[in-house]
Design goal:
Elements: E1 5-11, H1 15-18, E2 19-20, E3 23-24, E4 35-38, H2 43-50, E5 57-63, E6 73-76, E7 79-82, E8 86-87, E9 91-97
Antiparallel strand pairs: 1-5, 2-3, 3-8, 4-7, 5-9, 6-7
Length: 113
């Protein structure tokens, strides 16, 4: 599957203050560490490992083709690390998610080609 989309999670409450001047970066953004994003095939694992039990989170849907050209992407074990803030026009959507009563997320991204 071609990875045209990648995904990142941000707190719904924090989103307004983290997307300034046309870019998004987490509060603790460090270019060396980068911004960890999930590929479609690891999205459910990413959510259940990193965000189990969380409510009111936004799943950012990021179009890889719209990322600024000077961004570096490094694939590691089903994840992509972006070493610069994400330009807002690369974010196609923000989907509000809440974990279920067991604290889990049940989400599956399928490619239709």
């Amino acid at each position: 599957m071609q990875e045209d989309l990648i995904f990142h999670v941000v707190s719904r409450r924090k989103w307004p203050k983290l997307n300034k001047e046309g870019v998004y970066a987490p509060e603790d953004f460090d270019p060396e560490e980068g911004i960890r994003c999930a590929l479609p095939q690891t999205l459910e694992e990413y959510l259940n490992t990193e965000y189990s039990g969380r409510k009111n989170i936004f799943l950012l849907v990021i179009d890889v083709s719209r990322l600024a050209t000077n961004m570096k992407k490094r694939k590691e074990g089903g994840y992509v690390t972006l070493h610069q803030p994400i330009n807002i026009d690369a974010i196609l959507d923000k989907i509000q998610l809440d974990s279920n009563e067991k604290g889990e997320f049940d989400i599956n991204v399928k490619s239709f080609t």
